[in-house]
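REVIEWER CHECKLIST
Item 1: Sequence provided? yes
Item 2: Single chain? yes
Item 3: Sequence as submitted:
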Amino acid sequence: MVAKARLRYYDWWRFKFACKRLIWWLAGLIAKSAANYCLSATLMITNIMTELCMVKPLKIALYVLLVCVVSAQAQVMKVVGGHNPWPPYIESDGSGLVNDILHAAFDSQGIELEIQTAPFSRMLILLEERKVDLIAALWWTERRHKTILFSQPYFHNELAVVSHQDSHADFRGAKSLRYKTVAAIRGYAYHELLESIEQVKVIDVHSLRACLEMVYKRRADFAIADVLAFTHEQKKAPELRALIAHLPVLLSWPLHIGVNRAHPQAEEIIERFNLGLAELKETGRYQQIIAKYSSEGGQQ
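Item 4: Structure as written out by the authors:
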């Protein structure tokens, strides 16, 4: 009896998992081209899946579930993402590297994406209030993990400490920031590191450009900047070439999208993004996007 109960539980778990993945895949196909998808294809997939399940009640339930999905009106799911302007990742109009990756990943799953921009600390509030569906670029921390569901990483940020070249600063790790003034973007995860450093004074601003200008004008000793974003800002504002990034980098963090765990579709949004991201990497589209911005960042 125990063995049979375990078998039934395993079959049910397997059924739910298969249905979840299959429904999201079908929804993507339907949203992209409902006219090209017909009931005969559904029946074929049903036969394949039910042969795998080998449990008659599950066959019937799966068949009914698939017919309901296909017979319903196909609606394109729309999600709204947000972040502060952070060139070249996110420009003031929402375009940029992050936009390109997220749009491509969600498009492949039949999801429409809109990117909005506002100060980062404001975006975190909007996420909490569920006025946006996701933060488009987010670093994982234990504190955030309690309330936010994270995707697979889609990029890695290299964060360096920046100073004025005339200051002749001797940077040798986080402890070098003790008793110094550091310009930082309000709400960014590296604040947790700064809070752990003795007697560091943090000046919060809304953008990387503002951080760099604080250092350039000698109003702050250091700033923390993503290396690619720092190079991009120097290209746009030649006076910032008086600043230098110290190596090795202070932090290397993977970049994710994040959805409020209280969002009713949180797991679906994350799972479908992950599936889209995997597809981008398989087709080579992801590598093309990264190469585009890497080459632009290297041009001075």
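Item 5: Key structural point noted by reviewer: DSSP finds eleven helices and nine strands in the chain.
Item 6: Recommendation: ____
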